[in-house]
């Protein structure tokens, strides 16, 4: 039998347009740790054998009690007609349901095909229309494959009933076609069987959930719903797509994963006027998938849909009437949208959908409180740190605070670009940003702390926080690095006292070296990080560019400076680390490797330029990739 910790069910009802008080989240007593794959298989078998037998034969009870196999055709069935039996299939094989108008009746008939959901689970399908018994029992959307040779029935079915209004018929037709039409990403690919699906979900929470941009799902509730097969189909499709992509499952990526991501978008469009928390979570994962594979434009446009759905559910406001877990789910989802908005807007106010000033939420709580369904202000010493014994310690809240500083730095750089004269406000602005960074994270990364996190799942989040902290310092100080691409105009830099400029350049070099040192220490850990945060490649790219530029610049500090040979060696080591940590199928990593490779290997870049007869320094497969590389961190 299942233990009580695995049989607890977490029900989340989401706020819609009509009644905002319908959002409820039942609290759960205690916490549930990660379910190992062996437990998942055991639980699946327990769930199967606890249900009534699913595989049965359809028979006709003829006179005399003889049993004859029924082929499911229209009554009378073929065998009963051949044997001259009274066919009982017509008595119970069809069910009449009153229509919406009440003046006509629609007869549910048995189909001869298995639906796609039953095919994916390899279970017997009753074949009834519009939904089979298995899908009705599981609460799934029942979808049948398009028939190959039934033109007469299709023509008959396409004729609307007399009682149907044109509006209702058109809306139903649009949604039906949207749900059943093959996607542009390679057609329909059903989700894997439950056991493989559970492996993908468990791997997601072990390796992907620690990344700050994926920290908005609750592990226990999602895993339990997946076991019970009550999870939203769009959400589990998105989880499987992202998990298979980042963990390099060639069995599913890229054909199946792209189809799953497209299915999420189709499901959202089919219920566009009814946003839910589950649909926003699924859409946010689908957007992350699009960005990871290089479909930046599609992700950018889909984000507006996710943000509008969040506004409809008023996620930017606290809901103190909900349980702590429900509040934290809403809170984390909203902050994830805000952080994604920062990356998409890149400091352009006209591109911002959710300015930080319009979000009236507290910061995300520690992971231990999120797992235990406790108030975020609970004493951390009273909470279970998890199986690995290392507490997350509020790293996600720190990352969100750093994201706000990143937004301010990107805005500052764009405001300085058109200025043609010195501004006295630049120095106090930079000092204020540096002071806020020191308040957010008062201490630097240490090798001992890094080794402590190496034994836990929070290593990726720890690295993301400290790499971003150092990169924010670099973004602030490089404004005064005259001649650098992301620096302020020379007229502005010349108006700053030379001693302040020299200190800023030295500090910029110091933080760039710190980024490279963290990357070296993280790469030397054993076992190696399974999914590295995107910040590692992006921050490493900027650090390599900074040390190379400063080494050949007149502003190179005389005492603590760096030689060109040392800078080139460090930049090449960064490139090697990025290659080793490259995520399978991640387009941004490929762009960074290509651009940085041409910087640190100029001879190869010159040969490539001569071969193709053009400047290839900015050549890449993604549109505006260089713009994103330079602007992602301000």
TrEMBL record:
Would you tell me the protein name for this molecule?
A: Zn(2)-C6 fungal-type domain-containing protein
GO cellular component terms given for this protein: nucleus
User: Biological process (GO) annotations?
Assistant: DNA-templated transcription
Ranges of Polar residues compositional bias?
156-171
> Which UniProt keywords are listed?
Metal-binding, Nucleus, Transcription, Transcription regulation
Among Pfam families, the record links this protein to: Fungal_trans (PF04082), Zn_clus (PF00172)
The Zn(2)-C6 fungal-type domain is annotated at 114-144
Sequence ranges of Basic and acidic residues compositional bias: 609-618
* PANTHER family documented for this protein: ZN(II)2CYS6 TRANSCRIPTION FACTOR (EUROFUNG) (PTHR47338:SF7), ZN(II)2CYS6 TRANSCRIPTION FACTOR (EUROFUNG)-RELATED (PTHR47338)
């Amino acid at each position: 039998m299942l233990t009580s910790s695995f049989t607890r069910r977490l029900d989340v009802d989401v706020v819609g347009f009509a009644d905002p008080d319908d959002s409820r989240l039942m609290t759960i007593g205690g916490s549930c740790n990660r379910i190992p794959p062996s437990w998942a298989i055991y639980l699946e078998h327990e769930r199967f054998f606890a249900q009534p037998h699913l595989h049965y034969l359809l028979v006709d009870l003829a006179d005399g009690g003889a049993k004859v196999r029924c082929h499911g055709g229209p009554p009378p069935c073929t065998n009963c007609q051949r044997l001259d039996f009274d066919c009982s299939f017509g008595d119970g094989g069809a069910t009449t349901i009153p229509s919406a108008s009440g003046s006509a009746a629609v007869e549910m008939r048995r189909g001869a095909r298995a639906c796609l959901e039953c095919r994916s689970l390899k279970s017997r399908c009753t074949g009834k229309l519009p939904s089979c018994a298995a899908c009705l029992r599981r609460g799934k959307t029942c979808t049948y494959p398009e028939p190959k040779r039934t033109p007469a029935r299709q023509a008959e079915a396409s004729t609307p009933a007399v009682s149907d209004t044109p509006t209702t018929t058109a809306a139903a037709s649009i949604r039906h076609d949207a749900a059943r039409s093959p996607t542009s990403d390679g057609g329909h690919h059903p989700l894997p069987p439950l056991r493989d699906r559970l492996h993908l979900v468990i791997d997601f929470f072990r390796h992907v959930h620690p990344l700050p941009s994926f920290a908005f799902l609750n592990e226990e509730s999602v895993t339990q719903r997946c076991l019970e097969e009550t999870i939203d189909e769009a959400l589990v499709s998105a989880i499987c797509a992202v998990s298979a992509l980042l963990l390099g499952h060639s069995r599913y990526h890229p054909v199946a994963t792209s189809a799953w991501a497209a299915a999420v978008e189709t499901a959202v469009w089919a219920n566009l006027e009814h946003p839910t928390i589950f649909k926003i979570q699924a859409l946010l994962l689908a957007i992350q998938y699009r960005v990871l594979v290089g479909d930046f434009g599609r992700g950018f446009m889909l984000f507006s849909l996710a943000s509008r759905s969040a506004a409809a559910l008023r996620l930017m406001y606290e809901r103190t009437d909900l349980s702590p877990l429900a509040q934290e789910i809403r809170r984390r989802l909203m902050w994830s949208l805000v952080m994604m908005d920062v990356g998409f807007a890149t400091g352009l106010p006209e591109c911002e959908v959710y300015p930080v000033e319009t979000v009236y939420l507290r910061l995300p709580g520690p992971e231990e409180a999120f797992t235990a369904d406790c108030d975020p202000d609970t004493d951390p010493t009273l909470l279970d740190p998890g199986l690995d014994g290392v507490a997350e310690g509020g790293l996600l809240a720190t990352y969100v605070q750093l994201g706000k500083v990143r937004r301010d730095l990107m805005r500052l750089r764009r405001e300085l670009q058109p200025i043609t004269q010195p501004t006295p406000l630049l120095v106090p602005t930079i000092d204020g940003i540096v002071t806020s960074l020191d308040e957010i994270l008062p201490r630097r990364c240490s090798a001992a702390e890094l080794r402590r996190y190496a034994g836990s799942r929070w290593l990726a989040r720890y690295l993301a926080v400290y790499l971003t902290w150092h990169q924010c310092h670099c973004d602030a100080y490089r404004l005064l690095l005259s001649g650098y691409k992301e620096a302020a105009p020379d007229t502005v830099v010349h108006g700053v006292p030379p001693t302040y400029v020299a200190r800023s350049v030295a500090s910029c070099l110091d933080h760039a070296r710190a980024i490279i040192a963290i990357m070296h220490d993280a790469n030397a850990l054993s076992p190696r990080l399974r999914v590295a945060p995107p910040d590692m490649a992006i921050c490493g790219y900027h650090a390599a560019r900074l040390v190379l530029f400063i080494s050949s610049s007149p502003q190179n500090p005389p005492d603590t400076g760096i030689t060109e040979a040392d800078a080139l060696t460090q930049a090449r080591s960064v490139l090697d680390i990025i290659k080793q940590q490259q995520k399978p199928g991640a387009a941004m990593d490929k762009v960074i490797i290509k651009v940085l490779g041409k910087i640190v290997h100029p001879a190869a870049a010159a040969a490539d330029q001569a071969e193709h007869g053009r400047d290839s320094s900015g050549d890449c497969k993604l549109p505006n990739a260089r713009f994103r590389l330079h602007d992602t961190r301000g």
